[in-house]
Amino acid sequence: MMKNSNMEKIIIAIDGHSSCGKSTMAKDLAKALGYKYIDSGAMYRAVTLYCLENGIFIDDEPDLDKLRNAIDDIRIDFIFNPASGISETYLNGRNVEKEIRSMSVADKVSPVAVIGFVRRAMVQLQQAFGKDKGIVMDGRDIGTVVFPDAELKIFVTASPEVRAQRRILELKARGDKGVSFEEVLANLKKRDFIDSTRSESPLRQAEDAMVLDNSDLTIEEQNRLLMDWVDQTLQKNNA
Ligand code: DC
Question: What average pLDDT score do residues 169-190 get?
């Protein structure tokens, strides 16, 4: 991998379905390049956690008026934790990295992520994070809405079954052992459907995105492919 501090920094936008390994990929890329990493899904999850903790949900739907009134009071930051080596998510000054990955948040995040005023607030913040470039951001609309001029766009996908299996392992590693494969698969499919059919910034591949289907790729194979794309982009950008 080429890494030269004199090189012009780029923006790398990574979009795709949930549990495709986008975050790990984005984190590793950011580390290799010495770039910032922002997990945009964590921001929608943090807003969802706020709604759950502040009585904004009525059954499965957030109360729009209450959320509109609260949106300016929701502060989201990412703070690098040298011990874990990752940027952790903070909601109004509190570290919520663990809470936002729970099933209760995963179950409720899609209806929050479809709300126009929530998306506008998050996109504004995301663009501010990327104003000096040198950033890897992953999500659903990064290459299409947040950074339409990103130098490198990657669209990641994998079969729902492969993704559910990966999510189960992730949940188990976090100590969440009571969740079944079927439950996770159903949750993934439901979120895929909502994410790609919503009217606000639906998940779709940018025309100029590189497609990465990693259902049958090893991490090494995937990394090699990614490094090639990054090298080519950096060379083009610095030519
Ligand atoms: O990537 P994730 O599973 O942490 O994302 C959580 C939810 O947030 C998911 O339902 C899609 C939504 N999301 C979004 O709408 N736009 C983004 N840029 C990132 C995530």
Answer: 88
